[in-house]
Amino acid sequence: MKISVKEIALMAVLTAVSLTIFVIEAQFPLSVMAGIKLGLSNIVTLIAMLFIGRRDAGIILAMRIVLATAFYGTFVSFVFSVTGGVFAFAVMALTVNRLDKHKIWVVSVLGGIFHNIGQLTAACFITGQSAVFGIAPYLIISGIVTGFFTGICTQRLWFSPLRNAAEKFVKKV
Amino acid sequence: MSYNKKSNIMWALSFVIIIIICLFCIFRSNSDAVHAEVYVDGELVNVIYDINVDESEYKISNKFGENTIVYGNGAVWMKTSDCSNQVCVNFGKIKSSGQSIICAPHKLVVKLVSKDDSIDAVQ
Asked: Is A7 helix (H, G, I), strand (E, B) or coil?
């Protein structure tokens, strides 16, 4: 595994962007129902997956989770982040190259659903109660809605004039 | 526009169907809850036998922390908790059987059950 210095720098910048979005988002909790949030930092993960590659996107996601936990988290929130992150990343990495670029939103929605399913699984193990799956319908709906929102954002970025500039930059790296 | 618009619509439709199924599941569970079971670390520690009473408080404190559960008029909610994330407090009221409030940092679960599937029906 060979990583150039420029690649490291690019990944560091994306991690910083992702972490910033994550922290800002944490300051404005959606009070509709606890535990539901937009997951805007997923945009960065998805963008990294599309522009650089799946491996680097995974590293950025892992770095973001570790750093966010170091700043704000507890052990429990770390477990939730990791399971959600792993589930979402796995399903997005599997689907991102199989679907055309007009279906980036589908990838994001699947990621959103599996992120929430992963967190539910973690809650199930932590509390030792299968009853937690009673709130699965709520979380699946929120996963679809928020995943759709972040997916549309990513897709807009992909089909914007910014993409050419970004791709030139990434190629130089 | 050369991409396959049809498959995009198919994806959207399938997600909408999933949402409808989920909504159906949510609204199907009507307010038939009578008992509230309180679990700590996976073990049943208390059963509130009737939640269709005037508002009452139930305090629970153990090595994980302190929680105040309020029940009454067919609903149960978490009033206070000294946990780190306050997810349980912000969770709101639960009214129907099968629903539960989870306080993950305190390993606490409050679960609503109907008359049929409660503990004493089994014993």
From this structure: helix
